[in-house]
Amino acid sequence: MCFVSLIDLFMWSQATESLTNTAVSLGADVNISCDRDIEEIYWYKQKSPDPPVFILRTYSSTYEGAEYENIIFTHKYSVKTNSRLFIRNITTDELGVYYCVKTSEPLKFSNGTKIYITDFVNKNQTDLVPQHQKPWLIVTIITSVLSVFVIIAVIGVFFRLI
Q1: Per the database record, which ranges form the Ig-like domain (predicted)?
Q2: Would you say 15 and 109 are in contact if contact means Cβ atoms under 8 Å apart?
Q3: Looking at CB atoms within 10 Å, which of 38, 78, 82, 121 has the fewest?
Q4: Taking Cα atoms as reference points, which of 57, 70, 64 lies closest to residue 100?
């Protein structure tokens, strides 16, 4: 397991100034290359405002493969070569900035690759809500509107009494 210190986070924040932007479509697969010329690396994902999440570590021997931080990551992430991270079936959960970090001390962070959805900006907010959640969205909107009317009515009654 890898530990990120405050100094490392400071170095990390400095690396975000030179991000590579990668636009993808929902459901697509994506390859991210590490700009470090090394084979043994850590891969991290950062999704603001959350702290960085360690995904996996690669080794110099392809026989050793990758060591995952969480078994769930094996379904989404893999390494094609030790310096390329492969992400399957992009969802909004995979959006963020990906970093590779050399395993030896001192840690050296890559500039980072920001993954964002190309059609995300063009969709309105209700298009982003899954179909099974749309009835709850409608109920929430109706409840909010009714609450506003009740508050206005209570204020009106209060001022009539004065």
Answers
A1: 1-110
A2: yes
A3: 121
A4: 57
Count: domains in the chain: 1
- pLDDT value at 44 more than 90: yes
Of 85, 93, 27, 19, nearest in space to 57 by CA: 85
Q: Where would I find the H helices in 4-133?
A: 6-15
- Is 72 in a helix, a strand, or coil? helix
The range of the structural domain enclosing residue 53 comes to 1-117
DSSP type of residue 2: -
Of the two residues 89 and 38, the one the predictor is more confident about is 89
CATH code of 82's domain: 2.60.40.10
- The single-letter code of the amino acid at 134 is K
141 domain residue, yes or no: no
35 near 101, Cβ under 8 Å? no
| Within-domain flag for 138 | no
